[in-house]
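Case study 2.
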Amino acid sequence: MSTVESRVLQARLDELETRLAFQDDTIQSLNDALGQQQIALDRMRRSLELVAKRQTDMASMMPGDTEDDQPPPHY
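Prediction:
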């Protein structure tokens, strides 16, 4: 193998190693962002469940559609 071929191969190898390093960094950044989003999603899900429970509790305390509250059929 000539010196020129060796330099070309070394340059290609350096380029691939550089690209791999950037890809590793990008993958780690995306993984971190995904983890943060999952935590936020879990918090929002718990909040929504709490709101839904409170709404159900409040609806059960309000006078509502019971048979006594219904207008007679002739109305």
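The longest helix spans residues 3-61.
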